[in-house]
């Protein structure tokens, strides 16, 4: 029986074409090698989505796992070597739900010293308390399995991944760069159209066309300012020639004609947009009402649900199982630690690339998606009668993967909120929160991203 538990999740190894690329392969192999060298009574628990089996559309059944093994030989050989020294346990998530459906996977993974426990919940005893472990998809309406263990009972998230994410992997080789494979890092799903538009503008658009469009967009605000000034001149609130035909404009010489041409083009664009705005708004409103009438779109329902359903689930577990001191889950790809008195909720995050939408320094240019990695793990060990939860982030030198133009115009995203390196839990404590505090009011430290989720998680 182990006395130390290490947690990681959401590696998402595998997928069609470019999706099988593992950006963090070196870091993962090094992490596993470090655990092998340490040895001891340690259990590494990968609590879901170790593999991206949903991301395969060209192979089915057990062939999916064989493809993952074939595409990542270094990782599996290191898993085999590390598994000779410590226990390595896998539990299914939603993206590798097949692990819960086919008993043959138990023996196949055992060949690499991986212990597959095809359960939706695991528990481990630490000190005088219990650690409750799950992936978390059962609290996500879009990815909840209606009949655990039935390979034909699949949630809506599976079909979205098959139609959108797997397709992106197959078509990514046609893009300028491999940005399309990052679609699985876009959250929530509603962000995908804006993400596609951003990458079209900064990566796929013809450089010649971008050279023409960018000045038009940059001068858009100047055009609006110019129009307002002209109107104020016309009604007498500003002196004549304050905006039009003033000495500064005349001093530009030939450049004045270029400026006037750009302003004229922008005025035409503004006029067209104003003419289209009302009919487009009416069309959108009527279309939405029609979809709601047919039950295709339900008013008030969002795909993005944040972490609150998972925190509510943790509260329910603490209420019904007083011996549970730590609740561990993944799925949302947002590493966090939330402490309620003497109880702790841990989200193990993801090793995938993370994309954060940021605005540009120049108004009217599309925002872009700033890439980063947060390779991390949690370690839970006993310390006398107490439980210690340790957090560590693995350093990586992954490139930012931005074009020179994106680097020029992008604002830098805010730094992620830090997670405590050490948190002490007393299993003998109570769950009651001071002052009737609710789960949403409790102390939480996360990776600083918006509270939202994706149907493809």
TrEMBL record:
<feature type="compositionally biased region" description="Basic and acidic residues">
    <location>
        <begin position="444"/>
        <end position="457"/>
    </location>
</feature>
<dbReference type="InterPro" id="IPR029052">
    <property type="entry name" value="Metallo-depent_PP-like"/>
</dbReference>
<keyword id="KW-1003">Cell membrane</keyword>
<feature type="domain" description="Calcineurin-like phosphoesterase">
    <location>
        <begin position="6"/>
        <end position="138"/>
    </location>
</feature>
<dbReference type="GO" id="GO:0016020">
    <property type="term" value="C:membrane"/>
</dbReference>
<keyword id="KW-0472">Membrane</keyword>
<feature type="region of interest" description="Disordered">
    <location>
        <begin position="415"/>
        <end position="457"/>
    </location>
</feature>
<dbReference type="InterPro" id="IPR004843">
    <property type="entry name" value="Calcineurin-like_PHP"/>
</dbReference>
<keyword id="KW-1133">Transmembrane helix</keyword>
<protein>
    <submittedName>
        <fullName>DNA polymerase II small subunit</fullName>
    </submittedName>
</protein>
<dbReference type="GO" id="GO:0008758">
    <property type="term" value="F:UDP-2,3-diacylglucosamine hydrolase activity"/>
</dbReference>
<dbReference type="GO" id="GO:0009245">
    <property type="term" value="P:lipid A biosynthetic process"/>
</dbReference>
<keyword id="KW-0479">Metal-binding</keyword>
<keyword id="KW-0812">Transmembrane</keyword>
<dbReference type="GO" id="GO:0046872">
    <property type="term" value="F:metal ion binding"/>
</dbReference>
<dbReference type="Pfam" id="PF00149">
    <property type="entry name" value="Metallophos"/>
</dbReference>
<feature type="transmembrane region" description="Helical">
    <location>
        <begin position="212"/>
        <end position="237"/>
    </location>
</feature>
<dbReference type="InterPro" id="IPR043461">
    <property type="entry name" value="LpxH-like"/>
</dbReference>
<keyword id="KW-0464">Manganese</keyword>
<keyword id="KW-0997">Cell inner membrane</keyword>
<feature type="transmembrane region" description="Helical">
    <location>
        <begin position="257"/>
        <end position="283"/>
    </location>
</feature>
């Amino acid at each position: 029986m182990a006395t130390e538990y290490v947690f990681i999740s959401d590696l998402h190894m595998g997928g069609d074409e470019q999706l099988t690329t593992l950006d963090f392969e070196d870091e993962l192999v090094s992490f596993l090698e470090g655990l092998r060298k340490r040895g001891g009574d340690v259990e590494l628990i990968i609590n879901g989505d170790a593999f991206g089996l949903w991301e395969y559309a060209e192979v089915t059944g057990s062939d999916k796992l064989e493809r993952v093994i074939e595409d990542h030989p270094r990782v599996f050989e290191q898993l085999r070597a590390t598994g000779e020294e410590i226990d390595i346990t896998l539990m299914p998530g939603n993206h590798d739900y097949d692990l819960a459906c086919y008993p043959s996977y138990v023996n196949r993974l055992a060949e690499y010293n991986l212990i597959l426990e095809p359960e939706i919940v695991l528990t481990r005893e630490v000190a005088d308390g219990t650690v409750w472990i799950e992936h978390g998809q059962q609290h996500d309406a879009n990815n909840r399995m209606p009949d655990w263990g039935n390979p034909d009972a699949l949630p809506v998230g599976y079909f979205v991944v098959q139609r959108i994410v797997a397709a992106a992997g197959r078509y990514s080789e046609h893009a300028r760069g491999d940005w399309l494979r990052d679609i699985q890092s876009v959250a929530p799903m509603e962000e995908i159209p804006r993400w596609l538009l951003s990458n079209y503008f900064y990566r796929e658009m013809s450089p010649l066309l971008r050279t023409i469009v960018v000045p038009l967009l940059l001068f858009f605000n100047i055009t609006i300012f110019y129009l307002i000034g002209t109107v104020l001149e016309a009604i007498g609130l500003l002196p004549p020639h304050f905006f039009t035909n003033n000495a500064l404009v005349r001093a530009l010489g030939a450049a004045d004609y270029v400026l006037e041409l750009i302003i004229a083009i922008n005025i035409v664009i503004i006029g067209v947009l104003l003419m289209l705005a009302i009919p487009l708004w009416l069309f959108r409103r009527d279309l939405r009402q029609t979809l709601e009438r047919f039950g295709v779109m339900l008013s008030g329902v969002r795909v993005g649900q944040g972490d609150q359903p998972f925190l509510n689930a943790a509260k329910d577990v603490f209420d019904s199982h007083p011996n549970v001191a730590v609740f561990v889950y993944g799925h949302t790809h947002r590493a966090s630690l939330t402490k309620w008195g003497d109880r702790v909720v841990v989200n193990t995050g993801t090793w995938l690339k993370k994309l954060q939408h940021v605005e540009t320094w120049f108004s009217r240019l599309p925002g872009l998606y700033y890439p980063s990695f947060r390779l991390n793990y949690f370690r839970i060990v006993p310390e006398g009668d107490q439980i210690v939860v340790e957090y560590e982030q693995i350093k990586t030198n992954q490139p930012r993967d931005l074009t020179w133009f994106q680097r020029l115009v992008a604002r830098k995203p805010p730094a992620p909120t830090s997670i405590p390196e050490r948190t002490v839990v007393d299993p003998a404590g109570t769950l009651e929160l001071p002052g009737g505090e609710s789960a949403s009011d409790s102390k939480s430290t996360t990776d600083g991203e918006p509270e939202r989720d994706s149907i493809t998680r």
